[in-house]
Amino acid sequence: MSTIIIGAGASGLAAAITLKQKLPGERVIILERLSSAGRKILATGNGRCNLTNKYADGYEDVKAFFNRIGLMLCEEEQGRIYPYSLKAETVLDILLEACNHLSVEIITDCEVTEIQKDLTVYSSKGTFKADYIIVATGGKAQKNLGSDGSGYQLLKKLGHSTTALSPALVQLTSSSRYPRAIKGTRTRCNLKIELNGITKAEEYGEVLFTDYGLSGIAAMNLSYFVSENFAKETPEKCTAVLDLVPEMSKDELYTYIKQFGSLCGIIGRKLSDIISKQADSDTEKMAFFTKNWRLILTGTKGFDFAQITSGGIPLNEIKDYQSTKVDNLYICGEILDKQFPCGGFNLDFAWQSGIKTANRIVEKKNDTNK
After folding, report:
1. Is 21 helix (H, G, I), strand (E, B) or coil?
2. What percent of the chain has pLDDT over 70?
3. Distance CA 171, CA 168 (A)
4. What's the rounded Cα separation, in Å, for the pair 140 and 310?
5. pTM
């Protein structure tokens, strides 16, 4: 019996290891388009790999998985879980060591061109026949790290569809000169996204000002609404509205500025100076802009910079990760229409969906052998 996994990312590696741990005699082959496995894992968490979150639904399963292969974890703020080494390369090293120890076959530089319903796989490295196939190719985000969107086309040929695809957890672009003037400045604030003056979403968190616009967790978590807007044939006017000091009212800020002359003691020199400049040093305007700083948004940095893809294979086209279109074909990870905010939740889903997919195959095979 053999299982072919398409994609050597987080979900594919987790599925392969789980399968071989539970079915040592199963032949498991991973076909990877790039020249090395797990390249996207190395880029997660700014190279530290925020691999799960203690508040994620699949946390216990993911924690147990890494315990079994010898990766020690540590917790930081807001439940974020990292490898104890704080190095993404440690995560990949441990995963690949487990694959080697369990005799998982990884074939790199292997581009899959077609999957047939009889579970024949055609690729640049030849033809493969499997008893089970797991598609774990990822979405369209950061194609240079492996996710080029090819998995969608493979599955569409088998009768699957996709929801609308857009970059998510991605930086926002702005035509305003103000972010560029204070690039590198970080602040914690309340951020709203308005479309034609109507608030569509808001979040409190970190915002980073850059030469192209806005980054930081709050901006990236709201990027879906910006991407969705600019994917329309006629996008609506899109504005970021920042409340730089949500803990204080406009009147309280006015009183503070009258007393101390600026907002430097609250939001720092760079932000205070830019607000003062925009308000022409008018105290009332400074208080107003601090609570309602509006920046025109022009879009996002796109798929090449996005952490994940919003949209994907609809969840009603799978049951326990098995395709409803093709028997013994399984789909897991980012290619599915399942997205989460920053903080390790998306990577948690990649691991846990791979683990659960492997468990479903084990269960099915055991039922068949009864």
Report:
1. helix
2. 100
3. 9
4. 9
5. 0.92
